[in-house]
Amino acid sequence: MGGKKMNIVLNNPLETEAIAKIIGQKAQAGDVIVLTGDLGAGKTTMTKGIALGLGISQMIKSPTYTIIREYPQGRLPLYHMDVYRVEEGADELGLDEYFEGDGLSVVEWGILIEEELPEDYLEIILNKDSQEADKRVLEFRGTGPLAEERIAEILQVWEAREYD
């Protein structure tokens, strides 16, 4: 996986929500975002912020046992997936219908089903800081031109926000 990579340091959950809202605001139909990180790194928190950026006010719950939760009421539909427990048979879930659909797909643990992912997706790796519990380092990785463009758009808004 080549492509553009960028890191952002987030000092607290409010900053995590702020960057996530920007991600939701910049998302386009058919975008796929893979969230990677240890348990408790903030993948579901990130998805909640993305939902806010899409204009979804409904409570976002982790789809750990349901695998896929759909939230159709925003600017774009949000398809929130957690594939941690999908050991095999991911191709039978019809994920490509979501990935190629009219919404934004956010896939927790998506790297576990890498062969099912489209060629062009945005991976966000959430790393916890070993010293400060609330601090995160986000690593953005784009696997194709659309994801790389999305990274540039997100970072442009984030940096403008930082230095106002």
UniProtKB/TrEMBL annotation:
Protein name per Swiss-Prot or TrEMBL: tRNA threonylcarbamoyladenosine biosynthesis protein TsaE
Pfam families: TsaE
GO cellular component, one term: cytoplasm
GO MF, one annotated term: ATP binding
Keyword tags: ATP-binding, Cytoplasm, Hydrolase, Magnesium, Metal-binding, Nucleotide-binding, tRNA processing
A Gene Ontology BP annotation from the UniProt entry: tRNA threonylcarbamoyladenosine modification
Family: Belongs to the TsaE family.
Protein origin, superkingdom: Bacteria
InterPro entries: P-loop_NTPase, T6A_TsaE
Localisation: Cytoplasm
PANTHER family noted in UniProt: TRNA THREONYLCARBAMOYLADENOSINE BIOSYNTHESIS PROTEIN TSAE
